[in-house]
Specification:
The protein is mainly β. It has one helix at 2-22, and strands at residues 42-60, 68-80, 86-91, 95-98, 103-112, 122-131, 139-149, 165-179. The protein is globular.
Length: 181
């Protein structure tokens, strides 16, 4: 009898918490621009949140060597699953490497301006190469979506800072796609 009373008390105490979880709204789907859509022959295999930096270096402007601008060097970020567990990293290449040691290197196929003017562009990338036998080994396409931050600074690059690097914090959602089985 005491066991039933204790069980009922525990359930009653948890009821408000469980009710709150049940009423938590689902995340809104991401409105992906048409030019960033993947082929219908592919299926989503992983969605990861990236938190890190975009690295830029002060260099002569491409259009006018007498002026200076920030040039993109590489990303440096950690990848997390939906439960905030670290599952890999993202770095120059661009390369995504899973904790299982599988890797995918991408090549940009299309881009779209981010809704936030201070954020880096949204991208569609094709897998240039893969390695290992884990989660990234069969990746064919990658989307970079919902970017926050990461855009090159608007100023601060001049002859005195030539060659210096700056690291701009960013976040993004990366979606990885493989062929349908």
């Amino acid at each position: 009898m005491l066991k039933k009373v204790l069980s009922a008390a525990v359930l009653a105490g948890c009821a408000p918490f469980l009710a709150g979880c049940a009423s938590t709204p689902a995340l809104a789907p991401i409105a992906v621009p048409d030019n960033l859509q993947v082929a219908s022959t592919q299926v989503l295999t992983l969605e990861a949140k990236a938190t890190g930096v975009q690295i830029y270096q002060c260099a002569a402007a491409t259009a006018d060597a007498s002026k200076f601008e920030w040039h993109f060097v590489a990303p440096q970020a950690e990848l997390y699953d939906q439960h905030d567990n670290k599952i890999g990293k993202h770095y120059a290449g661009p390369t995504w490497e899973s904790n299982d040691r599988s890797k995918v290197v991408g090549a940009v196929q299309a881009q779209s301006k981010a809704p936030d003017a201070d954020a880096i562009a949204w991208l569609l990338l094709n897998a240039k190469s893969t390695s290992g036998s884990g989660v990234f080994s069969r990746t064919q396409s990658i989307q970079r979506l919902q970017t926050l931050g990461g855009a090159a600074p608007a100023d601060g690059c001049d002859q005195a800072r030539l060659g210096q690097q700056t690291r701009v914090p960013y976040q993004a959602i990366y979606r990885f796609y493989s062929a349908r089985s």
